[in-house]
Amino acid sequence: MTKTQIWVAAFLGLFIILFGISHISNNNEPSSQAGMNGQMESVQPEGNEANASALLKNNGCTSCHGSDLNGTNLAPSLVNVKQNWNRDELIAYLRNPSSFMDSERFAAYRQRYSSVVMPPFNNLDIKDLGKIADYLMKL
Prior knowledge:
By secondary structure, this protein is mainly α. It has helices at residues 3-25, 48-58, 61-65, 87-95, 107-112, 126-138; strands at residues 32-34, 40-42. Strands 1-2 form a two-stranded antiparallel ribbon. Helix 2 (48-58) crosses helix 6 and helix 4 packs across helix 6 (126-138). The protein is elongated and about 80 Å long. The protein starts with a helix and ends with a helix.
């Protein structure tokens, strides 16, 4: 064997080993299982609430709304947000809160929380905003 053949064989062997390891350790995709009627059913990965909770924390929501989201002197409670919002409205609000500030509902909030402005989250993926909205609707 020439040196070139040895290097090519070593590279291919390393590639095969790394491909096998990545295939075995890839747990990010939802698995599918056959249901009782024989059709394939998608099994959702657990931890959607943990993922949404992490999104809230990583994007600074808990720094104003509190670690339990019950509100602080900087921002209102997010518990029972479903009383005033549906999922689509909440996502729209999260993307552009300033567009909602002229409504009557926010008059009291503007007075009580005048020193803080809700930042827009239009830089977040719409799927992440959906996860956040779903999580908040369950509180």
